[in-house]
Specification:
six-stranded parallel beta sheet, 265 residues, alpha/beta, 13% strand, binds farnesyl diphosphate, 8 helices, 6 strands, Undecaprenyl pyrophosphate synthetase
C-alpha cells in the first residue's frame, strides 16, 4: 500500500469500483493566480495532488490511472511556462520513480516523446525500464499526447500492416484498437476532470467511448482524498449499459446472482 493508511477514510470495499481512471488535471494556473503566484507554482502544487491520487488508486486497488500531464496543444503556451513544465517533469520523474517502483507501480508514458529534450526522454525511458515488470497500479502519463494524434498514429500503423500483406477488409475496431495507446489494458471506465470545465480536450478520444464522465469544480492542486472518494462514490451509483436497456442489465444481474448462489450451494 502506498502512503499512509488512514483508518478514518470510508471503506469502499462494497462499491462498484472503476478498473481504470483517466484524469484531466485542470486548474493549476487558476490556483496560482488566486494566490498571486506564478503559474509554475500551480503546476508544482499540482504534483502533490498527483502523488495523492496515485496513492489513493493503489490503495483502492484500481488497476490503471492515466493522467494528462501535457497535451500536444500545450506547446502553444507561453515559452517560460512550457520550459518550467519541462523542468518540473524531469525533477518529478527523477524524484518519484524510485518510490513508485518500491510500491510496485508500473510507469508508462503515452504520446510522442520524440519532441522532448534528450534529458527528458532519458528520464521517461529509464522510469519505464525500471518499473516495467511491476504488477501493481499501472500509471500512464500522457505527455505530448493528443487523442487525434493517437488515432492518426494507429491508422498509419494499420496502413503499414495492410501494405505488408493484410487486406482492407480485415480492418475492424479490434485491429485499429490494437495500435492505439493503452490497448493492452482495460479502457478507462471513469473520466475525471477538475477545474470546472466540461470537455474532453482531445484526451483519450477513442478509449473514452464508454467512460462515465465526472466533472468537478475543485482546482487540481486542491483535489483531496475526499474528492477522490466522492468520485468513486458517484461512479458506484452509475448503471453502465453499453448500449443495452436498463431492464436487460437488471435481468443480467439477476441471472449472475442466481448463477453464483447455485455455484455456492
Ligand atoms: C492544467 O492546468 C495542467 C497542466 C497542463 C499540467 C499538469 C501537470 C502536472 C500536475 C504535473 C504532473 C507531473 C508529472 C511528472 C506527471 P492549467 O494550467 O490549464 O490550469 P488553468 O486552467 O487554471 O490555467
Amino acid at each position: 500500500m502506498i502512503g499512509n493508511s488512514d483508518s478514518n477514510r470510508p471503506d469502499n470495499s462494497s462499491l462498484q469500483l472503476p478498473r481504470h481512471i483517466a484524469v484531466v488535471m485542470d486548474g493549476n494556473g487558476r490556483w496560482a493566480n488566486k494566490r498571486h503566484l506564478p503559474r509554475a507554482a500551480g503546476h508544482k502544487a499540482g504534483v502533490n495532488a498527483t502523488r495523492k491520487i496515485v496513492e489513493n488508486c493503489a490503495k483502492s486497488r484500481i488497476e490503471a490511472l492515466t493522467i494528462f500531464a501535457f497535451s500536444s496543444e500545450n506547446w502553444n503556451r507561453p515559452k517560460d511556462e512550457v520550459s518550467s513544465l519541462m523542468s518540473l517533469f524531469i525533477t518529478t520523474i527523477t524524484a518519484e520513480v524510485k518510490k513508485l517502483h518500491k510500491k510496485n507501480v508500473r510507469v508508462r508514458f503515452i504520446g510522442d516523446r520524440l519532441r522532448f529534450s534528450a534529458k527528458l526522454q532519458d528520464s521517461i525511458n529509464n522510469s519505464e525500464a525500471l518499473t516495467e515488470n511491476n504488477t501493481g497500479l499501472t500509471l500512464n502519463i500522457a505527455a505530448n499526447y493528443g487523442g487525434r494524434w493517437d488515432i492518426v498514429n494507429a491508422c498509419q500503423q494499420l496502413l503499414i500492416a495492410v501494405q505488408e500483406g493484410g487486406r482492407p477488409a480485415e480492418i475492424d475496431e479490434a485491429a485499429l484498437n490494437s495500435f492505439m495507446a493503452l490497448s493492452d489494458i482495460p479502457q478507462p471506465d471513469l473520466f475525471i476532470r477538475t477545474g470546472g470545465e466540461q470537455r474532453i480536450s482531445n484526451f483519450l478520444l477513442w478509449q473514452l467511448a464508454y467512460a462515465e464522465l465526472y466533472f468537478v469544480d475543485t482546482l487540481w492542486p486542491d483535489f483531496s482524498d475526499d474528492d477522490f472518494d466522492a468520485a468513486l462514490d458517484w461512479f458506484s451509483g452509475r448503471q453502465r449499459r453499453f448500449g443495452k436497456t436498463g431492464q436487460q442489465i437488471q435481468q443480467e444481474r439477476g441471472q449472475q446472482q442466481a448463477d453464483s448462489s447455485s455455484v455456492a450451494q
